[in-house]
What does this fold into?
Amino acid sequence: MNLQIRAQLQRGDFNLDVDTSWPAQGVTALFGRSGCGKTTLLRIIAGLERVRGAQVRFGDQCWQSESQWLPVEKRRLGLVFQEASLLPHLSVTGNLLYGYRRTPPALRRLQLPDVSAMLGLESLLSRPVDELSGGQKQRVALGRALLCSPRLLLLDEPLAALDTQTKREIMPFLSRLAQASGIPMVLITHAPDEVQRLADRVVFMRDGHIDDVCALQQALAKPDSPLFADEGPSSVLEGKLGVADEHGMRLFGPQGSQLRVQAPENADPGPTRLRVLARDVSVALDDPARISIRNHLVVTIRQLHDLPDNRVLLETSMQDGQTLLIEITPWSAQQLALAAGQRVFALIKSVALMR
Amino acid sequence: MLELSATDWQAIRLTLTLCFFTTVILLTIATPLAWWLASGRSALRVVVQSVVALPLVLPPTVLGFYLLVTLGPRGPVGGTLESMGLSHLAFSFEGILLASVLYSMPFAVQPLLEAFNNLGRRHVEVASSLGAGIFDRFVTVILPLCRGGFIVAATLSFAHTVGEFGVILMLGGSIPGETKVLSILIYEHTEAMNYASAHRLSLLLLVFSFSVLFVVYSINRRFQVAKV
It folds into this structure.
């Protein structure tokens, strides 16, 4: 099942020209700088913007074409905006149930108790909307969207207006939602961090055009990926988080590519993501025994990329096939005589748990 | 002091009827009109907004004159009605009702326009994404969130119609029970040197108008306090 969009729009200097489609499953991140047309594209998908000649198809259902127009209220979407947009004259419960009450009972897949538990809303239900903090409001907005059991969840920078602390507080809810709800999501963001945490697929947008639609791992395999703008190249490793050992370290990943990571005690065991910054990884030709870095993985160098500012990026594959990027200096690469095809030890200094 | 004659009562009843229907019709027309005006800035909207605001600046006699010419037996509207076997609208209740609607239009549109601009589009978009159709959105989102605007629009339309004089004098004349509203009656009492009667009705209108404005400004104030 695909989400297909074709639209052309000229508005002053801005020109949107999009003809694309992507699978309607998992989390698709619409990534690009402010003003590149992400929000306009999302509004066209939602039906909030009626652009002449545009076409929107969701699976086998036509939402917009020359002859057809399905109004927003019939598309069964969940929409969450950047700023919390709770209806101020209703209570938290009134907001949560606004869409639920308008969903035919046969189509309701989620109930208030489940959603409140998933988003930690139990203690908020009886509060007036204007007494909630920004993060709480955003969680209620998410819950409200979920409770109409949408076929597609559209999130327009839901974290952008929140401070770092609140973001950190909401992120786990978002990723839990992405995994547990099974509802396809389109997430607008300009933060590479959010893409790496949540997305399965990235749509790169620039100046009203779509540059590329690709899986997250593919997007992260390009040394010059726009996703590396903030913190330099990094890899996202997928794997299962195990239970803690006697040192309080948690196992992550399959045999042969296994890491021991420090994770919060309350981190749920199960599928998760780790991010490894390329500059936090070193390379050794022999397995050094007496060293404080304890995560040593055997990797095979696939390719060496020259980066600007006198850096070299090693694209390596781990034993389970996942890509690990390592950033070193050209001098080290020369000293160790590194070449494609070579097996080396990757010493991983630190990782970040993304979910 | 407050003993009113049968003529006075008749005029009061007529005025209230006129004001009631004017307000109902105006709210029905002004709501979609103001919504449309609030939803963009195209040249056509500016034209419509200017036309709606015309009664604010035109002498009532000008509006009354054109209405008389249009609605009268030889005018385009009145003439057509006559040829269909109906009667023209000059010197009739229907005529002054139509005139009142046009004349008080800015007082209904302006507060609603302001309320809709304050409301913005977001809440309505949210409601539609949650499955609320157009009527549902109006009742459950627009009406409760713009309550102040609707109350102000209704009160001002009603009150402004009470204060109408020039247009009715031009178009309606002074037919008892049909077009002789309070303001006209006060004028006639004064012409006839019947100052006591004129005074009674004038005082009534003065108190009424003050109460209306007091209510409107209280609502406005509460509105602003609530927004902060």
